[in-house]
Amino acid sequence: MRVAVLASGHGSNLEALLEACAAPRCPARVVLVVSNRPDAGALERAAARGVPAATIARDGQDADRLLALLAEHGVDLVVLAGYVKRVPGRVVAAYRGRMLNVHPALLPAFGGPGMYGRRVHEAVLASGVRVSGASVHLVDEQYDHGAVVAQWPVPVRPDDTADTLAARVLAVEHRLLPAVVLAFAAGGTALAAAPSAAARRPDGPQPHSLDDVLLPTAKEPT
Ligand code: GRF
């Protein structure tokens, strides 16, 4: 499965995905990295691994260019990894059910417009909840709104700051996002109907308890 990654920042999730895809017989390959920021660390990480990279307008709203890039590279699955701009509606429509986002909280809580980066963890701490975590969800026309595919909890510690919590959540993102992408790649469009089979492929990478993180909605045929 040919994967494009859209990233606005450091690209540590991109790196985790590239690392996972470097494993023997990996069913997914990152064929394109796109950023709306020419200074994004993600672009350097792509270059270091020889992955084609491109920039788009800073506001991310050039649908024609984005669609052309995705078509040119034969992209099957789009992954938003630390991408902070809204994806144009025509691109969402073209990749409906084939576009994933990773979010550093347990959606639907602590998501939506303006809820990204440090602000997410500050809101979590301010709320007093004892558990945060990471979510991977399908992208639709609204920020952080599409069906949740996988989640993993991270306990909030009494002495947590936004930075310490962000670091522990990010470490989970680095495992959860590749696990979901590899399961998509192994299961293809049938993943939603058969996540267990995808997760248990004996010759493929073995996600850590993927069955436990795929939610019931993702396990039912659509
Ligand atoms: C991650 O928590 C991601 O979910 C968020 O930005 C953070 C940094 O991501 N949107 P990365 O290092 O750029 O992958």
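^ 5-O-phosphono-beta-D-ribofuranosylamine complex. Strands lie at 2-6, 29-35, 53-55, 77-80, 99-103, 131-138, 148-155. The longest strand covers residues 131-138.
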